[in-house]
Amino acid sequence: MALETLFLPDLLWEPVISNALREDFGTGGDVTTQALMQGQPTLRASFVARQDGRLAGLPGARLAFTLLDGRTRFTPFRQEGDRITRGDVLAEVEGPASAVLGGERVALNLLSHLSGIATTTGQIVDAVEGTGVSICCTRKTLPGLRALQKYAVRAGGGSNHRHRLDDAIMLKDNHLALFGSNIPAALAAARQRAGHLMKIELEVDSLAQLAEALDCPDGPDAYLLDNMTPAMLREAVNMIEGRAIAEASGGITPDTAHSIAESGVDILSLGWLTHSVKALDIGLDIRTA
């Protein structure tokens, strides 16, 4: 994974980290460290992988310490998107004990969560290797974390669907209800609203809906083929005949991803990559500098 593909400016990390630190510190700060600290001790700590996986979130972990104290030094030993194994030392932080202990939980929460997304994405990417299919996330992200969660999907080798409602026009069943489920009318209205750079995607859950849309002069740029079996997907791909992108969604798991990818679709989109993935176990081992 090219590092430039994964770059996110601190501008996008800082609000999340700052809010998390304010939530953790409350109005009194880290009273445990305040009670036990004598003088101005310095601590050094290592981030260590407790599981195999893929790495994402080191920039956020760094800010969890440096926003608390600019004297803190954060040294990464691995790169974002790297495959990591249990026991790997991922990074080291050194600085005032108040910053290291105060930022520890925020850093670990974010690093473990984002690495979990990257790890699971990587597993799905590996499952469809050789099919030419892209793995994509959706807008089913946790509030306030969208940019970071979508970044983690890219770190795992996946790609991103639209980031916001204004990125593209996506006609789902609830939108079609505004037109009495009249697909041609809805597509015509969407095409009239879209500029020359805006894409249109139409969700269909039956081959009959797909056939109706394919007859429209204002056809979409992509079809979201929702909850279709691999056999239905193969037929849908044959009907589309390369005139638009074919995206499969719904009920895709690591066990079913390969068979679905073999149907000939272009993209598999999975909402659970961001909204319910399991965190990767990463620890912070501390010693006195």
TrEMBL record:
Pathway: Cofactor biosynthesis; NAD(+) biosynthesis; nicotinate D-ribonucleotide from quinolinate: step 1/1
Source organism superkingdom: Bacteria
Keywords associated with the record: Glycosyltransferase, Pyridine nucleotide biosynthesis, Transferase
CDD domains found in the cross-reference section: QPRTase
Enzyme Commission code(s) on record: 2.4.2.19
NCBIfam families: nadC (TIGR00078)
The protein's name in its UniProt record: nicotinate-nucleotide diphosphorylase (carboxylating)
Name of encoding gene: nadC
